[in-house]
Specification:
Number of helices of chain A: 12
Oligomer: homodimer
CATH architecture of chain A: Alpha-Beta Barrel
Helix content of chain A: 40-55%
Strand order of the largest sheet of chain A: 1-2-3-4-5-8-9-10
Number of strands of chain A: 10
Shape of chain A: globular
Largest interface: A-B, 57 and 56 residues
Radius of gyration of chain A: 18 Å
CATH class of chain A: Alpha Beta
Largest sheet of chain A: 8 strands, parallel, barrel
Amino acid sequence: MTGWVEKLDAVARSSGSLVCVGLDPDPRRMAVSDVAEFNRAIVDATKDLVCAYKPQLAFYEALGMDGLRALEKTISHIKDVAPDILLIGDCKRGDIGSTAAAYAQAMFDVWDFDTVTLHPYLGRESIEPFTERADRGAIIVCRTSNPGAAELQDLKLTGDGVEGKLFEHTARLASEWNSRGNVGIVVGATYPGEMAELREQHPDMPFLIPGVGAQGGDVEAATRAGVNAEGRGVIISSSRGIIYASEEAGTFASAARQAVESLRDQINEARK
Amino acid sequence: MTGWVEKLDAVARSSGSLVCVGLDPDPRRMAVSDVAEFNRAIVDATKDLVCAYKPQLAFYEALGMDGLRALEKTISHIKDVAPDILLIGDCKRGDIGSTAAAYAQAMFDVWDFDTVTLHPYLGRESIEPFTERADRGAIIVCRTSNPGAAELQDLKLTGDGVEGKLFEHTARLASEWNSRGNVGIVVGATYPGEMAELREQHPDMPFLIPGVGAQGGDVEAATRAGVNAEGRGVIISSSRGIIYASEEAGTFASAARQAVESLRDQINEARK
C-alpha cells in the first residue's frame, strides 16, 4: 500500500514541481459564482504543474451544505483528472481519541483526503487514528506564519529533553509520532532560519510550507531552508496568490496557471 | 445584545442545572438509526434538566452529508423547543485570521451555535473572529482530560510572566483575549487540583468541563473545584454516559433523562 509520503515524492518527481495550490473559495473574490466550477477551472489549468491540492475546509463549511457539495465535486474532479496529485485536507482538527477516530473517518472515508493537517495540543492519541492508516497520515501544525503564532509557539520550555521553544518540541513530538513514516509538519514560510534548524533536526519529515504569496514569505529562502538532502520533501503552498491572481472570469484560470508556473520556477531555481 | 455567558447564567438559574449533554451520535450505539430522530428524543427527554447541548462536529462529519443534515435538524429542533438553552459547537477549530473568519461564519451564521471550542496554538488572531461578535464567543481548549493531554499541556515554561505549565499560560492568554467577556476555557474533569488553581486565577471565566462519566472524572471534586463564587460558572458535560445510558429503543430516552437527573443532583449536592 502506497503512503502519502511516497505519493508526494512520486508526483514531485514526475511533475518537477513542489507547488501546492490552496483551494480556498471566497465568493467575494471568485470570478465565477459556482465554487465547484471555479475549482474545476483552477484544477484543469494547473494540474500538470503541481504536486498537491489543498482545500481549506473552513471556506467550504462557511458556505453551508452548498459549500460541502462543492467540495465533494471538487475532490471527485481531482480524483478523475489528476489521481496522482496529493490531496491534502487542511482541516486542523485535534480532539480526544474517540472523537479523533470520527474525524479520521470524516477526512479519509467521507472526503478521501490523502493526508490532513492536525493540531498537536491534545497529544499522541489525537493523532493516532490518522496515522494508524498506512495509506493516509497527518501533518502536524508546528510553526505557523501568522503574526500571532509566537504567542504560544515561541514559548520557551524548560526540562530534560524539552529545551527550546514550544514549536521545536512539537516537531520532536511529531517525529516521535512518526513511527510509520506518514507524519509531516506545517512550517510557515516566514521564518527560514527556524525552518533550516527544523530540517537539520528532522532530515526526513515532509514540510508543508504555507505563507508564500499573500502572507509574504520569501519563496527562495523558504525553499533553500526547507528542502531535504534530495532537494525535495517540501510542499510549498499558495492559495490567494494563485487562485485570485486574476479576479476576471475570462482570465482567472490562465492567470492561475501563470502564477503557478512562476512559483514553480522560483522554487526550482532555489533548489539548484 | 445578550452574550452567551449571560445566556448560560440565565438558563443555569432557571433550570437549576449545570449539566451539558454532549450530542455525539455513534451509529454503532444508537438505539434508533436516524441521527436526527435519536437526538430529538434525547433533547425532548432532557430539556428541562440541562443548561447546554454540545454537538461534537466530528460525529456528524463522519457520517457525510447525511450526518450534517441531521445536525441541521437537531439544531433547528433545539432552537424550536429549547431556545434558552446554550448551544455549544464542539469543533476545536484553530486557524489563521482569514480562515478563522470563515470558520466563524460556518459556526455562527451557518450552524447558529452560541459559542464554540477553539485551539489556542495559533494565537489571538485565530480567536478574534469568534470573540468580536458580542452575542457569540469562544471556549479555548486549555486542559483536556485525555491521557495524552500531558504531552504538550504539562510542558514547563520559563520566562518573564510565563512560569508554570503550558495549560496555565493558555488560560492566561484566554483571559487576555477575553476583553469582551465572551471567552471561556475547557478544563477536563480529571484534574480537580489544577482546576481549583485555574479557578483561583480566573474567578470569572466560564469553565467547560468534559470528562465526567465515560472518561472517569469525579463529578463532586470537579464541581467543587470549578464553580465560581456564586456556585456557578461551570458547564459540566457528559456525552456517552447520558446518551448511551441505555442502548435499547424503548428505553434510551428515559434512561438519558435519568442519567441527567442523577448527574444534576450530584453536581448540585457538591455546590451546597
